[in-house]
Amino acid sequence: MRTIELPGNATGHAAPLTHVAFRSDGRRLATCSYDGTAIVWDTTEPSNPLPMNRLRHRRLVNAAAWNPADSALLATASADKTVAVWRVSETGRADLVNVLARHTDDINSLAWLPDGEHLICVSEDGRATMWDARTGAFLTEVGSHEAHCMMVSVSVRGNVATVGEDGMVAVTDLSDPGSPGARFVRRYPSSIEGCAWSRTGETLAAARDDGAVDLLTAELEHVRTIEVSTSAARTVDWADDDSSFVVGAYDGSLHFFDRSGLRTHRVDDARIWPRSVSAARGLVAAGSFWSSPHILDLATATEIAAPARATHGPNALAVRGDELLAGCDSGAVIAIDLGGDADDPAVEVLQVAEGPILSLAVRAGTIYAGTYSGHVVAFDGTRTVSGQLGAPLPSLCLDGGLLVAGTYNGEFIALDPATLTVVDRRAAHGGSVKSLAALPGGGFLSAATDRTVAVGSFHDRDTLWEHGNLVNAVAGLGSSVAASASRDHTVKVGRLDPSDGTVRQTQTLLGPDESVKCVGLLGRPEAPVVLAGSYDFGLYAWEVDWRDNAGTLASGRVIAEFGQGLSCMVRLGDHRLAAAGWDGRVVIVAHDGSGPVRVVRSLRLQELLAAPVSNEMVIA
């Protein structure tokens, strides 16, 4: 497993914040990030949070939890499949106490039992496990889910709640860790990704994928449903006195409610990543796409502290003439002139959006950007912004006279490219539409978290094939070849009949031992070259021989390695393709048919934008 290597940021994180966790006294805050670190902040003065120390894992850090019995102990959970237990002094010094390692997949969340001696960890392998945190001993499994287990919350009474992508909410009584008590289960038709016990332990809040939050008893009896958003509710936390709670939703907003379910405030800030919230002592911390956390007043939702430094992780690539366009977490599109000086290309930063750009499309010089906030922005020197479309927009394509957006909610939304008014919308997939790819003869390919890849027009579509897990990306070569990349660690490539889009032949290419994030095609339909980028930081290439299905059992050849997972690709023509990683590296690869695919150019966005920042953390 390779270790994340990102340019450092002495004042905060170098990538978006995945999780925030206040210590119970509100004087310390732990933040976790895609940059592979957790930072401990001194929040004694909430308006001026000061970084004290940086704790490192090999992969992104998903969660942190302060010990309820010993305020110096902090546990961090990572995609490197480990949990680290740290002793953090009041001066910021951190010593590693233990490493817990048994899970076979990313650890998504963790929580301490009230005794401060036992940790509950939940993983993408679906399991919830209990550990002796001080000795590092694995004790037992306390439950399992049929899909990824996303979050765990432990009440002051010792009730352990877990939620997952299988729609199950489970509560196990662990008030006596040595003798588990009653277990209760409640099932929903869609994913549950967030949960939090009230401070008294009487009420569990479950954040639903349909945008609602359910309040439940400790026995999982229904108390109340609060309608929060048109997009998924992702996270929730309670005030110290249980009088109110705050919800982060994938409409990009924070929603504040009193205990009765009355909405008191809403905060819209394109920098906020509402994947995580934490409340303590009248404060709320929220995750961020920028380098440091947001801190707000819980009673008034007034901003107390906000991040000052943007991060420029690229999420989408497109081409405009000789320019390669990279849409970034900062809302900027970085335009790189590939037709000029290869050693010192001209670069222009276009501030297209206020928050993260997830998808790009280009026509006649106009850049179209799909944003996390659920807007489409058209940019041709001036900006035109659509209405809020209900959910983040991870995919865009142009199909004839329509601009088609794919949403986190599984919809296709058709817009007029000139005015960005909505022309039509429909439920298209049973999960987030992660990727769209226009076909030259009309119509488009689509890939989604419902595991399917489809082809056709806006209304008339056929499923091409299904993966074993969610599909991250799809690409086409003319109208006769399609390829898709999946979390199941494979790439599928198929020959299509251009007359009706039916599949004539498929091959499954074995990828790396981690999720495959992006895919592209070069060459000729008779002998295509498939390129794919993975969360294992590798860029892979396969030269497809339609006559040799057995040859696909060999993994693709690694042609480049990055310092973080790869995020996106785009063809630059018949023989070249650009691939980008979240470390800010962009490579150009070429294949002229006479030899293997090779890297012909490498660029780093940080170097193009500014001088690198020191890796050193200033210790307060």
Automatic annotation (TrEMBL):
Renumbered ranges of WD repeats: 10-42, 54-89, 100-141
* Designated name of the protein: WD40 repeat domain-containing protein
Entry keyword set: Repeat, WD repeat
Q: Which domain of life does the UniProt lineage start with?
A: Bacteria
Name all Pyrrolo-quinoline quinone repeat domain ranges: 311-419
